[in-house]
């Protein structure tokens, strides 16, 4: 079925057919989903299937056209195009900071309520940069297996949050959350779009890759120009 569909797609100059995309949960939900939606508005003959998962899929075995990878690329046989940097931020609500004060170094976190992702908790908590050395905080009193759940807890004043910048960008811009410990946040990791090598790539693939490259670049430029001042 998919082979027959591909043969028809090759005869069309305009993008068409099903485009299967794999992306990490947070980056996929915050960035890829809205861009895939506007891409489809531009090319209505394309059907989008977006799977959000933090596992590294096998593009051939799992039947994906493209995947978004953060950090390690894995399969060296794939074509990889850099999209952006995946930045983490530490933040908290103004009410929480008014009550507990602003931490100035990672060592101050022992006197704070720390929100932690369940996966991180199993590996010892946060890993921060402290003069070039990893500094782990442990003993979180609030854990969750979902980044947005932790975000909502932070907005409610539950503690300090360590999450991707893309997840809390609007909260930082509005002042709902305030960034702290900027110098100690984990090092940014590269984000790539990867796809299989093909001498005759389909229009849906080439146009989508170009669309992401253009629009994520525009988004990053706009974000840098409007980023609010940070403290701590």
Q: How are the secondary structure elements laid out?
A:
Elements: H1 2-10, E1 17-23, H2 25-42, E2 46-52, E3 66-70, E4 79-86, E5 88-92, H3 94-100, E6 115-117, H4 118-122, E7 126-130, E8 133-137, E9 142-144, H5 147-155, E10 161-164, H6 165-174, E11 178-180, E12 189-195, H7 203-226
Parallel strand pairs: 1-2, 1-3, 6-9
Antiparallel strand pairs: 3-12, 4-12, 5-10, 5-11, 7-8
Briefly characterize the structure.
The protein is an alpha/beta fold and 232 residues long. It has helices at residues 2-10, 25-42, 94-100, 118-122, 147-155, 165-174, 203-226; strands spanning 17-23, 46-52, 66-70, 79-86, 88-92, 115-117, 126-130, 133-137, 142-144, 161-164, 178-180, 189-195. The longest helix has 24 residues, at 203-226.
User: What's the end-to-end separation, in Å?
Assistant: 56 Å
Write out the strand line-up for the largest beta sheet, numbering strands in chain order.
2-1-3-12-4
Helix and strand element order:
HEHEEEEHEHEEEHEHEEH
| Contiguous helical run count | 7
Mean pLDDT: 85
What general outline do the C-alpha atoms trace? elongated
Fraction of helical residues: 25-40%
Structure description:
- With 232 residues, this protein is an alpha/beta fold.
- The termini are far apart.
- The model has no long low-confidence stretch (mean pLDDT 85).
- The chain has helices at 2-10, 25-42, 94-100, 118-122, 147-155, 165-174, 203-226, and strands at residues 17-23, 46-52, 66-70, 79-86, 88-92, 115-117, 126-130, 133-137, 142-144, 161-164, 178-180, 189-195.
């Amino acid at each position: 079925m998919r082979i027959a569909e591909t043969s028809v797609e090759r005869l069309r100059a305009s993008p068409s057919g099903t485009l299967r995309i794999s992306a990490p949960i947070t980056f996929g939900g915050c960035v890829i989903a809205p861009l895939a939606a506007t891409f489809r508005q531009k090319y209505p003959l394309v059907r989008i299937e977006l799977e959000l998962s933090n596992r590294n899929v096998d593009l051939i075995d799992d039947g994906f056209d493209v995947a978004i990878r953060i950090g390690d690329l894995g399969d060296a046989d794939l074509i990889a195009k850099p999209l952006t940097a995946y930045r983490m931020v530490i933040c908290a609500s103004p009410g929480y900071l008014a009550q507990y004060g602003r931490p100035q170094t990672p060592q101050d976190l022992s006197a704070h309520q720390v929100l932690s992702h369940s996966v991180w908790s199993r590996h010892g908590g946060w890993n921060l940069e402290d003069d070039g050395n990893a500094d782990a905080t442990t003993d979180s009193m609030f854990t969750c297996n979902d980044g947005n759940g932790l975000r909502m807890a932070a907005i409610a004043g539950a503690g300090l949050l360590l999450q991707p910048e893309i997840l809390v960008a609007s909260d930082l811009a509005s002042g709902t959350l305030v960034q702290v410990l900027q110098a100690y946040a984990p090092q940014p990791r590269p984000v790539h779009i990867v796809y299989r090598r093909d001498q005759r790539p389909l229009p849906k693939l080439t146009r989508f890759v170009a669309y992401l490259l253009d629009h994520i670049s525009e988004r990053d430029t706009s974000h840098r120009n409007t980023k609010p001042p940070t403290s701590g």
